[in-house]
Specification:
Layout (H helix, E strand, L loop, with lengths): L12 E3 L2 E3 L5 E5 L6 H13 L4 E3 L17 H14 L2 E5 L6 H7 L2 E4 L7 H8 L5 E4 L6 H13 L5 E5 L17 H8 L4 E4 H5 L5 H11 L3 E5 L17 H17 L1
Parallel strand pairs: 3-4, 3-10, 4-5, 5-6, 6-7, 7-8, 8-9, 9-10
Antiparallel strand pairs: 1-2
Helix pairs in contact: 1-2, 2-3, 4-5, 8-9
Length: 263
Amino acid sequence: LVSRKKKPENTIVNIKGEKIGDGNQYFVMGPCAVESYEQVAEVAKAVKQHGLKLLRGGAYKPRTSPYDFQGLGVEGLKILKRIAAEYDLAVISEIVTPADIETALDYIDVIQIGARNMQNFELLKAAGQVNKPVLLKRGLAATIEEFINAAEYIMSQGNDQIILCERGIRTYERATRNTLDISAVPILKKETHLPVFVDVTHSTGRRDLLLPCAKAALAIGADGVMAEVHPDPAVALSDSAQQMDIAQFNEFMEELKSFQRQM
Ligand code: PEP
Ligand code: MN
């Protein structure tokens, strides 16, 4: 169902009027984790100032260590809902268990399925059964074929509102947190009719690489870029080393806008 051979034209994922896949390039910005109303509001203001509409923030955090901050759970979703209403934004947040899919419908505009759950087939099926856009991330060590099959699981249940997100894969290289597989973008665009985003934060794990990798993503034809922004990354409860602060975010957006004009 996701194959371009079955459907030659692009699927448009409609998120509160933003038509992802229409040829424009979109930005999903926001903190790694929702930590407080004030923290998210500060980022929301900056996002608004750049005329952007899509805000991210994790409420259920799939952390490598059980002793690390696990997210605010439904309290985090409530903060996102309030922010979305107050700032007229669309909010994206990861859901990690099929039981929370129904709950999520009331609070968020896009369900994110994270890298660690790309082959959680029950979660994929549950997300396929609801009327809500899904941002599906590539698994940590998933081939492109496995990634496409994960999207197929969602669409086979009836939901065609899927955005694919390349977020780096695990290789022997240690200079970056993961290896950004930039060629996955045109391959996914060719093989499927779904929009494709690139998450520059989790693929690189390095603040100094966010801008060049975002430029590469835009140049290679990605439909959107995701990156993490936190008012004070030094005290962030997760991904402290790679989130941008507001000043860096402003610079990042200005640079990307002028890059887009040159493209
Ligand atoms: C995230 O986007 O918050 C996240 C945990 O990313 P990933 O699933 O790609 O590791
Ligand atoms: Mn993160």
